[in-house]
Amino acid sequence: MMMKKEDFLAAAQASISPITANEAEALLASGAVVLDVREPAEFYAGHLPSAVNVPRGVLEFRVGDHPALTDTSATILLYCKNGGRSTLAAHTLKQMGFDNVRMLVGGFDGWTGTVHKIEVDPSVYQ
C-alpha cells in the first residue's frame, strides 16, 4: 500500500510535542534554539526572533554541521509556514536523537496571526 502525506503526518504527530504561540514565547525567553524549516526566501521575508534557517529539505544533512543542531539535549522550537513541514522535521529530529523538540502549532502564520514579534532580514528591502 502506498503511503500518502496524511500517513506521514499522522505518524509524525504521534511523536511530537506541539505548543501554542504563547508557550513558544516562553521558550524564546528561556533561550531555546528556534529553528525555521521554511525555504530561505520565506525566512528572509520574516521569521521568529533569533531563529536560524535550516530548510526541511536539507535538515538531515545539516544536523551536526550547523552550530544550532549539535546539542541533542537542547530545547528546539521548530516552525514552518503552517505546521506541515515542522511536524515532519520535529519527528525527524526525534528519530535522530534530539530529546526536547517542540513544534509551533499553526507555524509562522499562527505566530503572526497572534501578533507576536518577528524579525525581517533588511537585505530583502535593499
Structure, explained:
With 126 residues, the protein is an alpha/beta fold. The protein is built from six helices and five strands, in the order αβαβαβαβαβα. It has a five-stranded parallel sheet with strand order 1-5-4-2-3. Helix 5 links the parallel strand 4 and strand 5. The mean pLDDT is 89.
Can I get a quick summary?
The protein is built from six helices and five strands. It is α/β, with parallel strands linked by helices. The chain starts with a helix and ends in a 13-residue tail after the last helix.
Set out the fold topology.
Elements: H1 5-13, E1 17-19, H2 21-29, E2 33-36, H3 40-45, E3 52-53, H4 59-62, E4 75-79, H5 84-95, E5 100-104, H6 107-113
Parallel strand pairs: 1-5, 2-3, 2-4, 4-5
Helix pairs in contact: 1-5
Which descriptors apply to this entry?
126 residues, alpha/beta, five-stranded parallel sheet, 15% strand
Total count of strands: 5
- What portion of residues is helical? 25-40%
Distance between the termini: 50 Å
Spatially, the strands of the biggest sheet line up as 1-5-4-2-3
- For this entry, what is the oligomeric state of its chains? single chain
Shape: globular
Mean pLDDT: 89
* Main pleated-sheet profile: 5 strands, parallel
Low-confidence stretches: none
From the alpha carbons, calculate the radius of gyration and give it in angstroms.
14 Å
Q: Supply the helix-strand structural class.
A: alpha/beta
Content of β-strand: 15-25%
N-to-C SSE string, H for helix and E for strand: HEHEHEHEHEH
> What's the number of helices?
6
